Amino acid sequence: MKHLAETWNIPVTTSIEGKSAFPEDHPLSLGSGGRANPRPVKHYLEAADVIFGIGCSFALTGFGVQMPKNKTIIHATLDPMDLNKDVAVQYGLIGDAKLTLAGLSSAMDGLDRSNAEARTQQFKHIAELKNAWLNEWMPKLTNNEAPINPYRVIWELNNMVDKAATVITHDAGSPRDQTTPFWESTSPLSYIGWGKTTQLGYGLGLAMGAKIAEPNKLCINVWGDAAIGFTGMDFETAVRERIPILSILFNNFSMAIEIPIMPVSQEKYGAIEISGHYADMAKAFGGYGERITDPNDIVAALQRGIEATKSGKPALLEFITDQEITISNE
């Protein structure tokens, strides 16, 4: 994919599931598209004459970017049942993604490159779109008020860890929508993206599995207080089986993503209210647990959590956050 994109100066985006397949610090990267996405993603999809999907399903879902109408679409997939399932395509390619890309690159050798050379200006355009978008989000990404804004935690984590030695996954709901646009994946298989029909709390098991597969890497799951209500007891599994993951919990005492759509049940029954001291739970299980309420403590707490994992302990950092529901969906 990288060879084809660089040879022909093609901007690249990925689905959430494909995030990390293309380095997001590359000048041709638009970032990953899901329910939330960086601004360049939709801008370039709307502006495109041709959209080439490789290894994706083009399935219609509220957790993915909708394909714009009236575009020429080329769909390369291993599963013929994906073709024209939800999105009409003009050209279908059936086969392994790696082999298909290699064959396509070979077939394009010797073609006129004038259009590709004209697209070198897109490097600057992508950077300008990305920088303008990030500047608009800086008040949240650098927010220094309490309760802590979850975007601040993601921003600090993104800027401090060694990406080549890290595997991260989000949970469903707000953690997914807050993490995917602002976490910059730079190496393959470093991001485990999901969040369509799988239950809340799934990311905990993914992080443990990643740590078993990559014991020398920092393996992180980012989840919320609703997700820990589903699978939180399995943090004890990480302790018992000596799987030292870093578990980052956003606790706003609410299923905040549901606030706009559940006003009646909330008023009558408190349906979206959640409570708990999950750092204490982690410590009771024998892991490292810390509750963070001051945004000035974010970086130091992250460093302490990482150090705990290096000593062989799973760590749960419980950040007390505001009920942030704004997402980047432009």
Oligomeric organization of the protein chains: single chain
Reported CATH architecture of the largest domain: 3-Layer(aba) Sandwich
Q: How many DSSP E strands?
A: 11
The CATH homologous superfamily of the largest domain is termed Thiamin diphosphate (ThDP)-binding fold, Pyr/PP domains
Q: What number is the mean pLDDT?
A: 95
Structure description:
- It is built from 13 helices and eleven strands.
- The chain is of the alpha/beta class and 330 residues long.
- The chain folds into two domains: 2-127, Rossmann fold (3-Layer(aba) Sandwich), CATH 3.40.50; 142-320, Thiamin diphosphate (ThDP)-binding fold, Pyr/PP domains (Rossmann fold).
- The chain has a six-stranded parallel beta sheet with strand order 7-6-8-9-11-10, with helices on both faces.
- Strand 10 (288-292), helix 13 (298-310) and strand 11 form a beta-alpha-beta unit.
- The relative contact order is 0.13.
Short structural description:
With 330 residues, the chain is α/β, with parallel strands linked by helices.
SSE map:
Blueprint lengths: L1 H7 L3 E4 L13 E5 L5 H9 L2 E5 L17 E6 L13 E4 L2 H12 L5 H5 L3 H20 L8 H11 L5 E5 L3 H6 L11 E2 L9 H12 L4 E7 H7 L3 H6 L5 E6 L11 H7 L8 H7 L3 E5 L5 H13 L4 E6 L10
Parallel strand pairs: 1-2, 3-4, 4-5, 6-7, 6-8, 8-9, 9-11, 10-11
Which tags fit this structure?
13 helices, 17% strand, 2 domains, Rossmann fold, 11 strands, alpha/beta, single chain, 330 residues, six-stranded parallel β-sheet, three-stranded parallel β-sheet
